[in-house]
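Exercise: predict the fold of this chain.
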Amino acid sequence: MMLRALRALPRRAAPARERGSAAFVLCSLFLLAGAAAGCFAASFTPAGEEGGLFAAWRLPFGTLLGYGLIPAAGAALLSCSCLGCLLLPPLTGAAGFFAAFILCAARRLGGVPAPLLWTAGAWLPCWLLLAAAGTRLSLALLRALGTGARPVPGVGRFFAASLALYAAAAAALCGTLAY
């Protein structure tokens, strides 16, 4: 049924102003909702009880970078599938939730160093850009398979550039966490 609906779409490429803006807005909304939920959940963390929250930050740089690149590998795999357009926006919400929860809880428990806030502030937009680029790539793949239309030019290059930018931001974040 979905393939029939896709075949009914026109076979021309979308205009430049329509390309990717919906995916970016959708991923942004999921990220903001996840960050708001993370801040709200972290507000219930009792002040002064560190517990095991910072235990993961005491890992070596290579291990942290490996953990940081797992979302990039998942986004790359989902982008090359037709399910990516459905699964990547909620994953941005999960990333926003956990990042906001960790930062808010860490701030409440004993302060967060300024370099960590700056690198986390650079990491979140890079994740958002990667998820939006993956959603666009997945939609282009779904449209090409469903209608036989030519893929929109530049989608793959934009995804590769977003992936490289995310990897650099993850390395900076992991370097700050390992320090």
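Check your answer against the key: The mean pLDDT is 76.
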